[in-house]
Design goal:
By secondary structure, the protein is an alpha+beta fold. Among the domains are: about 80 residues, PDZ domain (Pdz3 Domain, Roll), CATH 2.30.42.10; about 90 residues, Pdz3 Domain. It contains 11 helices and 20 strands. The strands form 7 sheets. Strands 12, 13, 14, 15, 16 and 19 form a 6-stranded antiparallel sheet that branches. Strands 6-5-7-8 form a 4-stranded antiparallel sheet. Strand 15 and strand 16 form a beta hairpin. Helix 2 crosses helix 7, helix 2 packs antiparallel against helix 10 and helix 7 packs across helix 9.
Amino acid sequence: MALLQNIWWYLVLIGVMILVHELGHYWAALYFDVKIETFSFGFGPRLFGFRRGETDFRFSLILFGGYVKMAGEQPGDEQPSDPRALTSKPRWQRMIVAFAGPAINIVLAVALLAGLFMVHYEKFPNPNSPVIGYLVPDGAASKAGIKLGDKVVQFEDISDPTWEQIAIKGAISPGQPLNAWVTRGGERLHITITPATEEKQGIGNIGWAQESEIEVASVLKGLEGERKGLLRGDILVSVNGQALRSISRLNEIENQTDGAPLDLVYSRTGQEHRVTVKPVKREEGPGGPRWMIGLSLQPRVEVIRLPFPEAIRESARQNVLNTQLIIKSLEGIVQRKMSAKSLQGPIGIAQMSGEAAREGPVPYFGLMAAVSLNLAIFNLLPIPILDGGVMLMLFIEMLMRRDLDMRVKETVVKVGFVFLMFVVVFVIYNDIAKIFPSG
């Protein structure tokens, strides 16, 4: 059932992305009076569709992407006698047509997040106070000498960093020493941390978590949490007499119990309550067998609605931050500082789509915004056959003030296609390897 849900929600998500991206090209081409022969959802043989005017709108067999075919678009397809052929248009117009697809994906990413923030914006109580609430045993931070309660006041060249900035920097720096300055007992200390590399994702893992109050996001049916009367919104205070500062610590304690009862203290409307819960062992799940008390947890946040101008600003800020993360990740992969395992393919995105949809509309539309931004940046890469490659060749022709040789264009496009197919095969293999790791 979960597999079918994953496939369905992936098709919905990728369908919206393809439609919006190709509409960008379509609208720009219409604006410049370019003849549009085909608007296809998918590649390969035509399944069904309809003709409107001179354009064939179709669904094709392979729903992995889509395309808009314009007269004179492909090398060897020039129609100099047709003033409406793409190659008959000035290069600056052709460049705008190529850029319009990624551009509208960026607009969609900003619009989706802004719309979400106008109805559901999660405000953390102390977003600018990165105090350490959990350390992974033998993790990078623990080995470097970080202690619980340390406050990070500078991370590399970032003064007064947010936890978001710290997490991003750590993720894109596996195996690279990072400088951190923390305050402990009124003293400022300099500590060098080298993030470990996560085996599956290939990203950096510092092995720490921010101190935060722990809120019950949902209660799983039939398990101890429900039987003991815990409700969504309850705040977990302590377990077995230990104050809870992070979700990771509670998960760690659960898995160390071997089924022994836990003394749990939680707060509801300002009053503390004490219950004894007995973890049960669940065999399924991506992490394998684990003990659990049946609570889905999240850092405590205040959900507010941002007014439109503020929602746009916050959406733009987060999209700029995400763009920097994507670019830094790609740089890290090219420079071999990060593993290509960090790339997600269609199978990985399908899993994420299903999980996000099951959690609710907010995570799902948030994922849609992230995928839209990633699609825009990927298409702007200077790889022949992608929009960025088309723009690069047009730019070279503008500098040369003449067209590139037709044989050169055809060769470049073929090389670009082969490279793109290699990337597709690699990310699919990568997705499968994450699900069924060797050994």
